Amino acid sequence: MTLYEAIYVRKTTRNFSMEPVRGELISSILEYEEELIPYNPDIQTKIEIIGNQDAKARLKGLLTVNAPYYLVLYSEKKEGCFLNAGYMMEQMALYLNSRGIGVYCLRNVHAKKGYDINENLHDLIILAFGLPKTELYKTAYSAKRLELSELCTFKSEIGSSMKAILEAARLAPSNMNLQPWRFVVYDNRVHVFMKKPPVANALLQHMAEFDIGMMLSHIMIAAEDMWIDISIKKLENINSKSIPNNAYVTSIALK
Asked: Do residue 87 and residue 121 come from a single domain?
């Protein structure tokens, strides 16, 4: 199963078996870190796997789940770090799903830092993973997501490639299924906006940025699978526009 195929069946696992996974799979996860594509390569990151077969791993946070393993993404804290973390972690989640492993994304949960983790790096997001006790996959048709007509403002007719890319974006997971992304769509480009949280709150802002990063990773993966070159760039002429209750994120052009 490719990452693109995994987008259509990815499902959050909430009930894990505490059985260990194969040792070679753990090794492949650590190796896959080298293949992760960052949204911003200037932000330093590091991944660590914490074993929890004895259920003694201590995570700090309100919403945790008991799993045999936790994958922690550490990052520098600088502008765009939460979006970058979501972008990278969703690639890892899809990779694990494609290998038959269940995942659960933990936000605002923290782990004890490993001895080899740079003190300037902070745990931004944690992925619980392991063998699921319940059904691993779902169908795209069962995903509770807004329709493209509710997410997009279409400025022109679009082709099948653009529609497929937007559909992959639509299926991205999000905190409490809020789906904070909105799109202004032309035939060969998309302007991406993020719905502002209902109240000014740093935590809600960070959650939305994680979600936007996950959604953008779906766009990147879909385009790569279809052999479509895309450019992702923030445009000043769009950035200067004021759109009520939305913040401009970036623009995507199909080449």
From this structure: yes
Q: 75-91, pLDDT tens digit by residue? A: 999 999 999 999 999 99
| 89 contacts: CB under 8 Å, gap ≥ 6 | 73, 105, 125, 127, 210, 213, 214
Residues 97 and 158 in one domain: no
- If asked whether residues 30 and 95 sit together in one domain, one would say yes
Rounded distance between C-alpha atoms, residue 170 and residue 151, angstroms: 8
What pTM was computed for the model? Answer: 0.92
- The answer to whether 90 and 10 have CB atoms below 8 angstroms apart is no
Q: Which of the residues in the chain have pLDDT under 50?
A: none
**Residue 8 and residue 88 in one domain:** yes
State whether 172 and 126 are in the same domain: no
Residue 114 has what pLDDT? 61
